[in-house]
């Protein structure tokens, strides 16, 4: 957090049918609906998250991601990062407070990959769902489905991975935890962390701009990932691959799709990162093992299905 960025704050996801999507993210994945607004957007959170929301669903004609936001330490930090982005040559725009219910003003910018990002300092805090801040129980009763604890990260596809890495590391203070390089040493994958997590944001080189590969949500154990696999089959949800283990980050994972075709991941475990760690490097020719450690090959859907 050397530049004041604390964590992923929220992601706004486009869906084709809002109620069908709400059922997927609440009944199946276990996120909690916290609000709706006059635009018809639905606000969700994982039960351990203290902010009012971390996922926003918006009805649209095509699926994908509208924007990804990061929460910063305070308003002074937000002002400083806004100035630093503009000085770096990355133009910013301001979104007024309460355009998202319960959220303060947001500073938006477009990364070299074409993705829209936001920074914000203030958001209403409603606390962990069903658990008190005083003598809290281990977990709340009444959780649904996979019982996702939090929105964790996104993997994004687009051009200019090297430039995106420089922007996030040099201006926003992220650290490069892992990378994928081609035979010429060019960076084609970048996994960056702003704290101790394996990564908070990741980019993979792709000629198409502003593509979403997946949003990811944290579970507590390998047994929880296996339960998620059971629930995917019990509900006839479209599965991508898993359960399996990553080579990158070593997390244990399963991938599946929401009804609009947006890929979701739930996972547990994974490596940790400190700023003095040398980046882990994976060779592009070994990408199959890097992504799917057990199978050691990539399935075609994982590479080609983007929203």
TrEMBL record:
GO molecular function terms listed in the Swiss-Prot or TrEMBL record: catechol 2,3-dioxygenase activity; ferrous iron binding
Enzyme Commission no: 1.13.11.2
SUPFAM superfamilies to which the protein is assigned, alphabetical: Glyoxalase/Bleomycin resistance protein/Dihydroxybiphenyl dioxygenase (SSF54593)
Keyword entries, A-Z: Aromatic hydrocarbons catabolism, Dioxygenase, Iron, Metal-binding, Oxidoreductase, Repeat
EC top class named in words: oxidoreductase
Needed cofactors: Fe(2+)
Catalytic activity: catechol + O2 = (2Z,4E)-2-hydroxy-6-oxohexa-2,4-dienoate + H(+)
Residue ranges of domain VOC in the record: 7-122, 150-269
Family as reported in the entry's similarity comment: Belongs to the extradiol ring-cleavage dioxygenase family.
Assembly information from the UniProt record: Homotetramer.
Name of the protein in its database record: Metapyrocatechase
